[in-house]
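Help! Submission page says 'invalid entity' but I think these are all valid:
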Amino acid sequence: MAMAATPSRPFDYLESLPGTTFYKLYQQPSTALAIFRRMLPDLAKCFVMALLYLKDPLPAANLEVWVKAESLKERDNALSILGRLHILSNTMVADNTRAYKITDPFASSLRQALTGAEKTQSFGVLSHLSNSDSRSIAELDEYARRQWEGVLGYMVGTSGLGIQRDVNLSKGVKQLLQAGHLVEIRDRRVEITQDGFAFVLQDVSVQVWHILMLYVESADAIGMSSVEVLSFVFLLSSLELGQSYDKKHLTSNQLRTLTDLADFGIVYQESPDTNQFYPTRLATTLTSDSSALSNPISGSLSGPTGGTTDKAGSGFIIIETNYRLYAYTSSPLQISLIALFTTLKYRFPNLITGKITRQSVRRAIEMGITADQIISYLATHAHPQMRKHNVSRSTSNQAGIPPSVLPPTVTDQIRLWQLERDRVKATAGFLFKDFVSLSEYEAPCRYAEEIGVLVWKSDRKRMFFVTRHEQVAAFLRSRK
Amino acid sequence: MNAVDATEHYETSARDPAPSLLTVILDTNPHAWALLENSLPLSKAIANILVFLNAHLACNYANEVAVVASHNQKAAWLYPRVRQNTASDTDGDAAMNGSSAEPGQVNKYRPFRIVEEQVTQNLRELMESTSGADIQGTNSTMMAGALTLALSHINRSSIAWAEAHGADMAAAGGDVPPTGGSTGTDTMGEGLQSRILIVSVSGATDSAHQYIPIMNAIFACQRLHIPIDVCKLSGDAVFLQQASDATKGVYMSLAEPQGLLQYLMMAFLPDQRSRRHLILPTRVDVDFRAACFCHRRVVDIGFVCSICLSIFCEPPENGDCLTCGTHLEMGDYGAKPAVVARKKKKKKRVNGQSNTATPTPTPTPGP
């Protein structure tokens, strides 16, 4: 489950880039640092750091004995990710032993990031403002919350309900959402797509990454280099919240990106002509895990529309074992999100109640929402009271299993309701077949399992199915 | 068919990995560093440690560091440092993050720079405040005080983290008794992961007078599942070996102090989560000697009070235990046992009867 923490989308996108793009990307220390922090599993981070200050390549055997025998799978997974991101390269040293080393632009950039001995403005230039002019963190949070909620509201269609009038979404935002197939325009009305439903239920940090990747993908179409945009995104992620940064050193493309991202609330600027900009929490937590975000944004996104970031990590949904749901919110956005998979019953000024039923879940699933999305939405927005209660209970019952915030009956039932419909799952990939002997079949199959790409295998038919074939093919070649 | 079994539905509830807090205790004993001057001067060691701290911060957005100096007169915070000039908070807690306005040098990730500036500045202050008389007074280091500071900081951070995340007090806070028979390693996935790294240069005998507080700190770490890693640049400290052994930390005595950075990066950087997958350098021959309670000498064989288990290097006066005051019957200790005659008897018995007659287990007879 090492990959579970990493949203696959940015990773997949990065992986699809050609090697030369990586070469350009890794020139920037901020990019190297962000990729190191965000994309790599723990073990891969250890490998990188261990190799970073070594002069000579480390023989593969030495690296391999470092890992415990029972963690082979994690090791191969880590090595495979490092290889796919062009961070680790295989070299041959004397007497034909295989050795690993960190590829060069990445190694030198990461070293520069750690020691800070270089000239580029990779981590932004602080601008010095008098205190009266600068924006407080609360103001930035409020701005980010308003903009982001505006985007989500536009998608779900709450704009007509009388809130968020003050948010003006620019044309670029709407085009981007359309280009990403998150919404469709039919008869001048905005309609959310299946992807869009899936999108709005995700965690905020995942949403931000999704939008940013859409933006990067569309950059080439509007005449910007995607590499430049991408490294600017990574630069933004390494800035500090509450500080203003100077625009003088930015290129025109970066300025353009900045203006576009301001519409999403990822950065704040008074107007496109001012000399400073502020990153908001949406930007600065890009390279963090979602739990490290401690949900001030999502908390305030979901909380009462007062907008004051009260206690960090405040959820608002209580769900009981009898499928009744209570949500302490008055935000039309959240109410319409909950209504996607709940039969609502009462609505009070600060509370709505409803029930999760077979019908309501099936309705949601027909719209393209998955059970996992519903469950993760409920879990991320669970009321602190529920966390406390369930943690104390589950640690006493089953030590060793991470405590689940939601009642297990509810999560299981939601999954079962999905299974009623969802009987076939498609996975794109590659089939290896026609092995001559069982031994010839077994080795690559085991290898595929170890690097975590194996989806299905049949010993009898001597076939196996993988999601990625390059490494398995290389493995097969190396055995010949 | 797809089955919904009990193992599957817990996967999604597994949280993202918790951040980890690394507390470095730097032994700044001037005597010991003077001896290391040729191989690894303090300035170079600090530079290496700073890179190591940055590497730790780089691993996770929410990772934290703390640095404590264990000087020869006192233990002092290097980072985060309480600022004396800033007014304390309303709740009496002083702000732990003094950030001064810093000009110039902008091409560095800001958290890295803040740590670096504070550590170097505070260390300079510490060195300047050390007078010649202080150094001549003692040649040991305040390891016990530094460990205690580190532990209280860890405790505070864990509680703050658990509060901020609304849960997991059982795993993070020290105030909840451990649950039933569950071993600690199971619950380690939650909460703030803390560990302590001691960069030690002072020798063993110097810290013998702090034996009791050090051991207490070690036991506290053991209970809270905080590994103590020890990076020994010179000398060999008895109690620190025990510390890393008892808390399942890493103990390394560096043969080549010049390569400090590589040692740090390879052996000490992996956090508890990664350590599950790695084979760590540990020590097999741990020195388990203790220091006596009366003269703080490190002893091989000593006297133990049968009531409170205090250790003494020689029988206490009047047979009264210095710790609990119990009067102990010493028997006729010190009197030479008249064994000469008996020994002969024994030999006869061995020949005649079975071994069971001998009161003490004798080594197995030779061939």
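Support: the input was valid. A stray whitespace character was the problem, and the output above is from the cleaned input. The first helix of chain A runs from residue 8 to 15.
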